[in-house]
Design a protein that fits this description.
heterodimer, A: 198 residues, four-stranded mixed beta sheet, B: alpha/beta, Rossmann fold, 2 domains, six-stranded parallel beta sheet, 10% strand, binds iron/sulfur cluster, Lactate utilization protein C (chain A), FTHF_cligase-like_sf (chain A), NagB/RpiA_transferase-like (chain A), LUD_dom (chain A)
Chain lengths: 198, 470
């Protein structure tokens, strides 16, 4: 018997007490939690939460202006030209090695969804986001969030996301609390997260 | 589980040693209280917490009651998305599978992101024997690995080390593993984190094989989910050409939508944050990676077979129960003798490994039954109920002197009046859960066979009467 068969047989015999006719759907899952909420202004909330994580937040500053201040930036496919005027741009074509990405000043991306309540930005590798390494290795991440991409709650975000795409949820710069519980920002991911809400 | 920590004494002895270590006790106290206050604050701001908790418990119950079907569904979904699925009945088989997969790449080094499943099976040791070096990449795990040590907390495994010790460990041991610590390294947490960043950077950028666990696996879509803080998880999951994830069969959730519950429950319960800094979700061979999922049993089906104990498999490893446990606060994680410390360890380890050894049989007694763990648990595992159930089993087996286990666990651990006051809400509260097993007054403490349930009086009263008898 293969281990697959062994494990499945063990599971079935362990569950001998479950009525044979019971279907998974027959096990009730109460979903009385909130899908959305009313509350403070969505954009204000997102900004507060991001600042709480020690991200830098700009409201309605032209993206190109912010980008020009950051040196040589990786720019993924699908980035709008208006974000790039006068910016020192590096393209991932042909794909850069991790070591090459490490030598860049930063990366400029869009996002798929942002969650106001938790201060979370989700990337899905689509338009203006690129493969996952692009937003991981460079030390500075300038991320553009359009107002129509902001939702309030986690359930609302999941509704908009496609599980078949590789997703990265980002809530502030990387951090550790492993040394006597002192929070230190910036371990392995980008040490600075700069968010432009437009 | 493959092994107990080498030479591990039973809980009472190990606990007594830990209780005597003032530094450890200080660190633990600070850590558990800090995290638990943060947790309380972010849970309080979530108005639908109780409903989320009920949903989380129910989703996991659904998975467990129909686990066979969900496992097959997950396998099909992962394979459809270009991933490979392997099944490991025990630790030895899981290690063999991983070793073979690493060997097939021709590599002799792998980077690892913290995973309790791989720790449970002693994967690093197995890889080392096979000539493969596994580099731990979480800051805390790095501290533990460089210090040739064992983790003591699910979430902050190096909670037993202070900054001066960490600096010493880095200075002495980093060079042997790769880039040495800078000469002028101070014990400022920023400097220590920076040293770790530099030490690991080159390794991440050149790694060909990554090994991880997963917090969740979605049966419907084949999506795996890893929550983390530092970014080492993203490094290990994203940069290597080959990714191997070792995942316990209890980690499943049925649907994509179910993540909306757990992505709220886990970060708040665990680190006390609204959201953890990074979460990665991927399905199959993401971005052309060679992806292998190793599904691990290793005793989980034994836990599943126990109608009462089964609920322990709902655990999402948030560690909230550790941080509120008066016993854990005194003893630290090492005393529990397995990778799963604290209240969850006290019910999970004896079920995974069986009640054969004195250590494992003593774990269900490593509790005052105060019920704080049940209250904070985001998936509502009734830990006191399972503890009592396991005590009954220990008693019924007749293999151990229950009175001895109980007395020693209690005497060594609960040596402070403050602690006893804290454990006022005690056994009596849970008596009605196991009425048939209840002893008459004080009978539990004299009869070693039938009545391993708690006494009907409060723990404090019982304690006072013990003191008088001395
Ligand atoms: S038993 Fe509950 S509280 Fe404890 S680690 Fe598991 S999920 Fe968290």
């Amino acid at each position: 018997m293969s281990s697959r068969e062994t494990i499945l047989a063990r599971v079935r015999s362990a569950l001998a007490d479950i009525p044979f006719a019971e279907t998974p759907d027959a096990v009730p899952v109460p979903r009385d939690y909130a899908r959305t909420r009313t509350g403070p202004d969505l954009i204000e909330l997102l900004r507060d939460r991001l600042v709480d994580y020690r991200a830098t937040v700009h409201l309605d500053t032209p993206v190109a202006e912010l980008a020009r201040a950051r040196g040589r930036l990786m720019v993924p496919p699908g980035t709008p030209d208006e974000w790039l005027s006068g910016v020192d741009v590096v393209r991932d074509d042909p794909p850069l090695s991790p070591a090459e990405l490490d030598r860049l000043d930063g990366v400029l991306t869009g996002c798929a969804v942002a969650i106001a309540e938790t201060g979370t930005i989700v990337l899905d590798g689509g338009e203006a986001q690129g493969r996952r390494a692009l937003t991981l290795v460079p030390d500075h991440h300038l991320c553009v969030v359009r107002r129509d991409q902001v939702v309030r709650t986690v359930p609302e975000a999941l509704e908009r996301l496609d599980p078949t795409r590789p997703l990265t949820w980002i809530s502030g710069p990387s951090a550790t609390s492993d040394i006597e519980l002192n929070r230190v920002e910036g371990v392995h991911g980008p040490r600075t997260l700069e968010v432009a809400i437009i | 589980m493959s092994s107990t920590f080498v030479g591990m004494p039973p809980f009472p002895k190990a606990a007594s040693r830990a209780v005597g270590d003032a530094q450890l006790r200080h660190n633990l106290r600070k850590a558990t209280h800090t995290i638990r206050d943060k947790r309380a604050a972010v849970v309080a701001e979530q108005p639908d917490w109780a409903a989320l908790r009920a949903a989380g418990a129910a989703v996991k119950t659904r998975v467990l009651r129909h686990l066979d079907g969900y496992l097959e569904q997950l396998e099909a979904a992962v394979e459809r998305a270009g991933g490979h699925v392997h099944w490991a009945a025990d630790a030895a088989e899981a290690n063999r599978i991983v070793i073979d997969l690493v060997r097939a790449t021709g590599e002799t080094e792998v980077v690892k992101v913290k995973s309790m499943a791989t720790q449970e099976i002693d994967l690093n040791e197995a890889l080392a024997e096979a000539g493969i070096t596994a580099y731990e990449t979480d800051l805390a795990e790095l501290i533990v690995q460089l210090g040739d040590d064992r983790p003591s907390h699910i979430l902050v495994p190096a909670i037993h080390r202070n900054r001066a010790e960490i600096r010493e460990i880095f200075r002495v041991a980093m060079a042997a593993w790769g880039r040495p610590a800078p000469d002028d390294l101070t014990d400022d947490p920023r400097a220590l984190a920076e040293a770790a960043r530099l030490h690991l950077r080159e390794r991440f950028l050149t790694a060909k094989v990554g090994i991880s666990g997963a917090n969740f696996a979605v049966a419907e879509t084949g999506t795996l989910v890893v929550l983390e803080s530092e970014g080492n998880g993203r490094m290990c999951l994203t940069l290597p050409e080959t990714l191997i994830s070792v995942v316990g069969i209890e980690k499943l959730v049925p649907t994509w939508r179910d993540l909306e519950v757990f992505m709220q429950l886990l970060p708040r319960s665990s680190t006390g944050e609204r959201m953890n800094p990074y979460t990665s979700m991927w399905t199959g061979a993401a971005e052309g990676q060679d992806f292998h999922l190793v599904l691990l049993d290793n005793g989980r089906t034994k836990v599943l077979a126990d109608g009462v104990g089964r609920q322990a498999l709902r655990c999402i490893r948030c560690s909230a129960c550790l941080n509120v446990c008066p016993v854990y606060e005194r003893t630290g994680g090492h005393a529990y003798g397995s990778v799963y410390p604290g209240p969850i360890g006290a019910i999970l380890t004896p079920q995974l490994r069986g009640l054969g050894s004195e250590l494992d049989a003593s774990l269900p007694y490593a509790s005052t039954l105060c019920g704080a763990c049940y209250d904070v648990c985001p998936v509502a595992i009734n830990i006191p109920e399972v503890l009592l159930h396991l005590r009954a089993k220990v008693g019924a087996s007749g293999a151990h002197k229950v009175e001895k286990l109980t007395m020693r666990a209690a005497r060594r651990v609960l040596s402070s009046p403050a602690l006893l006051a804290a454990s006022q809400r005690t056994a009596g509260r849970f008596r009605r859960l196991t009425p048939r097993r209840l002893p008459g007054p004080l009978a539990a403490w004299t009869d070693t066979r039938d009545v391993p349930a708690p006494p009907p009086q409060s723990f404090r009263e019982w304690w006072a009467s013990r003191e008088e008898q001395k």
